[in-house]
Design goal:
Layout (H helix, E strand, L loop, with lengths): L1 H19 L3 E3 L10 E5 L6 H8 L5 E6 L6 H9 L3 E3 L6 H12 L3 E4 L17 H9 L2 E8 L12 E4 L3 E2 L8 H22 L5
Parallel strand pairs: 1-7, 2-5, 2-6, 3-4, 3-5
Antiparallel strand pairs: 6-7, 6-8
């Protein structure tokens, strides 16, 4: 029953993203065939999770989302139903970190928006570096993803695109090494910024 309902929800999102929004997916060949890995993406709209989730057609993404979204019982139930789990922002949330490792250990895909909040104006904000530490400790790659022209959805202001870059393997080292974590986080952010700038115009 759960699988039937989930597939029904995915089909609804497919109609909305590919049909209504005419979403374009670029770099789909860069998505690893199997997990575990982390997909890290910029964040400008509440539409970003379903855009990213439907763009990655052959994977189920376990999203990490801000705890505030789970305070509404109905929304909280729905988010958990589609494999999203909460994280408390502004502090180290050990429960969310442990859930992240559980997802990756199970061979699944962990979805994170490292800005931690929506960033307006077509820019990519500073990254919270926790995802980089998780990748380093779990020894998994990070798939950089960029979403463009989602900020004012459902009103379209340009072609809605989801772009996937080449996976970047976590560097050797310890997750407690601040310099290693920071450098890796910035490498992922730079990749996302480059893709966003390349594809945010009206032409490819």
């Amino acid at each position: 029953m759960h699988e039937f309902m989930y597939n029904t929800i995915r089909r609804i999102f497919n109609v909305a993203t590919y049909g209504f929004l005419n979403m374009e997916v670029i770099g789909e060949e860069n998505i690893p065939e199997k997990g575990p890995f982390i997909v890290a993406c910029n964040h400008a709209s509440n539409f970003d999770p379903p855009l990213l989730g439907t763009a990655m057609r052959h994977h189920l993404i376990h999203f990490m989302a801000k705890e505030e979204l789970f305070r509404n019982p109905v929304m909280g139930w729905f988010l958990r139903y589609v494999h999203t789990f909460p994280v408390h922002r502004g502090r180290i949330d050990r429960k969310a970190v442990m859930e992240s490792f559980k997802v990756l250990k199970g061979g699944a895909v962990l979805g994170i928006f490292p800005e931690g909040k929506r960033t307006r104006g077509g820019f990519v904000g500073p990254f919270h570096e926790g995802f980089a530490g998780i990748a380093i400790k779990a020894k998994v790659p990070v798939l950089p993803a960029a979403i463009v022209n989602s900020e004012f959805l459902p009103k379209k202001t340009g072609p809605v695109r989801v772009i996937f870059g080449k996976p970047i393997m976590a560097p050797a080292g310890k997750a407690s090494d601040h310099d290693v974590v920071t450098a890796f986080s910035e490498e992922i952010r730079d990749s996302i910024v480059t893709m966003q700038n390349q594809y945010k115009g009206d032409e490819k």
